[in-house]
Amino acid sequence: MSESKIQVETEPSRSLSPIIIKGARVHNLKNVDVTLPRNKMTVVTGVSGSGKSSLAFDTIYAEGQRRYVESLSSYARQFLERMDKPDVDFMQGISPAMAIQQKNTTYNPRSTVGTTTEIYDYMRLLFARVGKTISPVSGEPVKKDTPQTVVADMLDRYEEKQRFYVLFPVSMEKNKKMREEVAIFQQKGFNRILLPEEQMVDLGRDEVNLKKYHPGEVRMVVDRLAIKKDDDEFRSRMVDSVETALLEGNGRCYIKLHKGEELMFSERFERDGIDFTEPTPQMFSFNNPFGACRSCEGFGRVQGIDEDKVVPDPELSIRGGAIAPFNSPKFNHNLKLLVKVAARYSLPIDEPYHSLSKDVKNILWYGKDEYPGIHSVFQQVRSEFYKVHMRVFYSRYRGYSRCPECDGYRVRKDALYVKIADMHIGQISEMTIGHARKFFDDLELTEYEMDVGGQILYEIRKRLRYLDEVGLHYITLNRLTNTLSGGEAQRINLANALGSSLIGSLYVLDEPTIGLHPRDNDRLIRILKSLRDIGNTVLVVEHDPEMIRSADHVVDIGPFAGNHGGEVSFSGSYEDLLGSKTLTGKYLSGRKSIPVPEKRRKGRGKEILLEGASEHNLKNVNIRMPLGKLVCVTGVSGSGKSTLIHRTLYAAIMKELGVYNEKVGRYRSMKGLQHIDGAEMVDQTPIGRSSRSNPATYTKSFDGIRDLFSKTRESRIMGYTSGHFSFNVPGGRCETCQGEGVQTIEMQFLADIELPCEACGGTRYRKDLLSVRYRGKNIHDVLEMSVSEALEFFVDEKQIVNRLQVLEDVGLGYLKLGQSGTTLSGGEAQRVKLARYLSRTEKDHMLYFFDEPTTGLHFEDIARLLDSFNRLIDRGHSVIIIEHNLDVIKSADWVIDIGPEGGFGGGTIVCEGTPEEVASHKESLTGRFLKPLLLPE
């Protein structure tokens, strides 16, 4: 009794033993000791570069992953010796770990939100099991008949004593005359034929000329019967007769009523003379050759005519000249034909093109009656390609368009005949997550359908609920994964983790609030708490005040960045943090804050005016962007900020400047371009295209460093030039890893592992080149320096210092000069680019676009970032920022709030003006959170 009691008491205490780290020295961590509670939500915070990621990801997660690999096969374990073990004295309580980072590493053009979250895979299963194939001819369900269902159908349809024949068709074999075919059936015992007009022929007695009949008109009689409702003998006889007819008729059987209609039944999957394919999960997969559309190979788009070029302004009506090719003299007669057809069928050709229904647009593109359609016009143009002007005309409208065979749904055409609740799988994939959740929640299945598809439906509903709750309700299921932002990709991974329902795991998240409006933060926090409540330990690297406030435990790393950080400044509860002396505690308690500007800039009195923006969910938006100011574009996730600023305004400006070849969002007109000399998009894409790109090469400071090394005495003796110190070209670099410093090991079913190069030990250079030293340091030692250290080391080299100082100014002094660009977070990459633009000295007036530049920034770093923006504006430039951070919004000169909701509920300008004007606007969700900061009651 006592033993069992002890066991009950010790088991929970063992399972809830804390995570203990002692002597962690990864990167800049200074022998850190920290204890984290198990099955709780812990937030790790601190200034950028203080060592948060080094503790959370490079120490705790890395050890969790290493221990997991250790438990796997011998194949996986053979790489353990080469996997770097975190530099730590002692670690205890580490669970199998999963990292959910704010990086979108998917480049596959076939990957969609639906496939990534497995929702599409479950939908394929559901359609294969409970979907009904609907004939496109009659609109009736397609089903296979059996002798039993034929009998049941006849008894249900017709009254007692209704006479009928059971028949099967005479199918002709190749090179065989009908007389020979009939003779074969006669040998089998079939002696009667039913000809058209119910003419019965007895093959034993009657002479008939079969030549004048088509084989499809000749029916062989199996039996003659009359309906008997409650007669088992009748049922048995009819089942035998129908079974014989189906066997001899190659799966087809006809029932001809006496002096009445003829019905066809088939044990094949066919209807209305069409053979349909029976649904299977592979049939609905656009990533499988069996299910992918033959024309577009599952991509949904083909090279052809671009609708946006044919109809450049969807605000115009058809009569008003919306169809650009019809405005030319050669094709103007097509418009006249269209007007005639429109009058005949009452088509709304005086309404804006964008408001036309799909059926009307189909007539415009594919034609009706004498009007040939837009596609036919371009086919005519192609037939005259021997004329130069016709080729030029065609190229003007060429682009990628929806695949005409599958209508952009990616799957084979007959997969679209299978429907659930009158919707095929392509139509459901075009729904937003919010709409899809409502569709599946409202979906009612029969008892049989619930038996075969109930569990599948449960899985779909569960995953959609999680995606909706993490704030992704506005994203469509067919959205390409490679178009998602880092924050969106992270929240999808978080929803996947919830869907897997694992327990006893360690989840490490990297700023999950990125890209979220303050309105949605509480929903995300609830999700993380539910992950904790089912028995997991949640470790979050975060700066958001709301997230820190909701944590069970807070660890503040600091006190500053780089060599001045790497210590645990605080570890405890949120309440205790408020009273601490750390920077985070001072900001959260209000003892320190980012001040509201004393006055707003008046700007240059010039502006860029964009009218009629209508891409995606934008609803004919007109915006004015004042120049010479800090302009902030705000709104909830999915409201249309990126569509308006990235895809429309920036793309339109670059198109006008002649340096942009990609698709531009739809808009009517743009004015004021003469007031700027150029535009730059400072986004979160990686710096450079390869892993060799780093802060030193990107800021051009590495050119000066290589020159210094080439001028040393050893270099002159050995004949080394500055080119020998480049790891991008052959010469002095290690050719085994080609200057990468690492080699990638493919782990087949696991994620690839990057290991230090065995030849150079990760230094990137040949040994003889590393013997060249400048002030006691070789080129590898210099690349291992942080920006702050390099500024002290090269203090006398003005050219190098000038290029590196701007990195220090934007808060990136902790970055290593040689740190691979692919390892930088989105926010760090963006600030490296900002530093490069700050180092410019030209006098041009540039318009700079920033997309959430506060990613990864502590309150203290945001203050420095705002100083950098002010420096750009003081030099005569203009800055436009897409941002959710309230400290940045309150510091702006002009705010444009888009919304009010995301997806279809957004796409309008809620309000615009100074931050104070937005804060006092009743309809603005941003204003609601801004008001306590600017207009305290």
From TrEMBL:
Gene Ontology terms: biological process: nucleotide-excision repair
PANTHER family: UVRABC SYSTEM PROTEIN A
Chief location category: cytoplasm
UniProt name for this protein: UvrABC system protein A
A Pfam entry, by short name: UvrA_inter
PROSITE patterns in the record: ABC_TRANSPORTER_1, ABC_TRANSPORTER_2
Keywords, comma-separated and alphabetical: ATP-binding, Cytoplasm, DNA damage, DNA excision, DNA repair, DNA-binding, Excision nuclease, Hydrolase, Metal-binding, Nucleotide-binding, Repeat, Zinc, Zinc-finger
Recorded superkingdom: Bacteria
Coiled-coil ranges per UniProt: none
Cellular compartments annotated: Cytoplasm
Entry GO CC: cytoplasm; excinuclease repair complex
Domain ABC transporter: residue ranges: 603-931
InterPro entries per record: AAA+_ATPase, ABC_transporter-like_ATP-bd, ABC_transporter-like_CS, P-loop_NTPase, UvrA, UvrA_DNA-bd, UvrA_inter
SUPFAM superfamilies in alphabetical order: P-loop containing nucleoside triphosphate hydrolases (SSF52540)
NCBIfam families with a match to the protein in the record: PRK00349.1, uvra
Homology family: Belongs to the ABC transporter superfamily. UvrA family.
GO molecular function: ATP binding; ATP hydrolysis activity; DNA binding; nuclease activity; zinc ion binding
